[in-house]
Each structure stands twice: as structure tokens, then as C-alpha cells.
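Reopening this one. Same input as before:
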Amino acid sequence: MIGLRQRLRQAWHARHRASERHELNQRNIYIVPTRAGLAFIVMLLLLLIGSINYQLNLGYALTFLLAGAALASMHITHASLRGLSLHLRPVAACHAGQASALELQIANPGRERHGVGLGLQPDAGAAALAWAEIGAQGQSALTLTLACPQRGLHPLPLLRIESRFPFGLFRAWSLWRPAGQVCVWPAPEQPEPPLPVAAGASDDSGERRRAEQGEFDGVRPWRRGDSPRRIAWKKLAHSGEWVSREGSEPQAPPLWLDLADTPGAGIEARLSRLTAWALACERSQRPWGLRAGGRECPVSVGAVHLEQGLRLLAEYRG
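Same output, byte for byte:
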């Protein structure tokens, strides 16, 4: 029976097609009584039976008064969602094992809304929802946390927006499958492995020392971010003036990161090593290229280049 319920739920969830925006209206808002609402209905039935048996006019009045309040509550609960519009901002990539943030924008064209919750479907209960109060003719932003345990391109999960305002007797909700994917990069290897030796690199210690130090042509005023090795400490000690030696920066040879050069039995471990190497090259601003699975990312450096390389690793299928 449990398997049948799961299959029916999956079939129902599959009916929701991905879309850029979700408009809540009469056709996509569902409403059912909560446990408290079911208990309230049972109480009304007991009150009605007692009033009939004992011919209590005040009992009839109380029963129908409470029933009218419950019907009004159902209408208010449904209206708390009707007319809202949901939009998802671009989802930032993350490394496997981390969490990605889903930033949602809720637009309200009408009166103010109270007790609007949003969460992932399937959920871990009401505590997993993020709640918001949306002002009249206003907008509100909510952030959900999406766990990303495995690398790759994953479709965005089904989202649920719901309300139990004002009395918690009814639960109104709607489901939305946002269009888009979340890119999960491989997790970098820890501890960070040393970079591979570039092909044709010189092993002469004097050449390496000159490459590290660079050639200085003069001095200039010190600027924030200058390396301590460039500061003219002797001049600072004599005159108290902060100046930096100016000259050509050391240029390391471009480095090709190839999946074929990574040792290891598992493909995930090899991809993690490439990820760690790419991050290390970016921190040192060393130009690097990437080859994996017949695809190639040309030699470059920078945030855009890093994102392209890590995306190539995330999409690797072997």
C-alpha cells in the first residue's frame, strides 16, 4: 500500500511542468482541512447531534455560528494565496556536499498576506517551511536551502507554497516546478594536492628563484594589496615612506590539467583532484587549461574561466 501511495504521488508530481513563473489562481490552489480542522468538524457534529437530541436552540445557534466561522476561515485561507506570483532568481553553482541557495521572489498585487510559507516538496514537515509576511502591493524574498550531495546538472525540485492563516483549520497549497538546473561541481580534494609540473618546465633553481622574485625597475607609492616582498623596507626604516618596488611580475608557464594525468581508482576522486588544481591555479592567477572526456577548456584565467572549467567537470560522464 505504501508503494502504491508513492507511485500515485510521483505520477501526480510529474504532471507539474517546469515554468519560469508561477501564478496562483483557482485552478492550481488546493485546500483540505488540517488535523485541527478535522477535530473541529467532529466537534461541530457532536454539538449538532446534542442540540437535536435535547432541542437546544442555543446549541443550534452555537453550532451554526462556529460552522459559519469555519467556512469564513476556509475562504480567507484560500484567498491568502490567490493572486500571488512566484519567480526564482538564477541559482548559483556549488560544490558537491554543499548546499545551494534558492532565492525566490513573491509578488503580491493585492492586499497584504499573512502566514505564507514556502518549502521543498516532499518536505520534512511544517518546520521545514520558510515563512513570510507580504505587504499590500509589495514583494517579499525567501531563501530555501537545497542540499547537493552529488556532482552534475540536476533539475530544480518541486516547490510548495502554502498558508494556514488565520485559524489553522485549513491548509491551502500549490505546487510549482521551476524551470532550470543547479550545477554541482565536484568537491575539491582535501588536503589540497600539489600542482603537477608543467611540460617543459625548467628545473634550474636559479631560474625558479628569478621567476618568483621578478625583475624590479624602480619604486612607486605603496598601494593596498601589494605583496610584502615588494615593499622597500630599508627606505621605510630610514624615511618612514611606504613605497613598493615596481617591475615585471613573475610569469609562471601555463599549466594543462588533464584527467589522464590524475592517479586514482575512482573517477570521482580524479575529478576532485582536477577541481583542487583548478582552484589552486586561480588563487595564484596562473593560466591553466583543462582536458577531460574528449572535451577541452582552453588556457586562460579568471572567474568566468574557472566556472567554465568546473562546469565541464560537473558534466563529465566518462
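So the earlier flakiness isn't reproducible anymore. For the record, Residues 15-182 form one domain.
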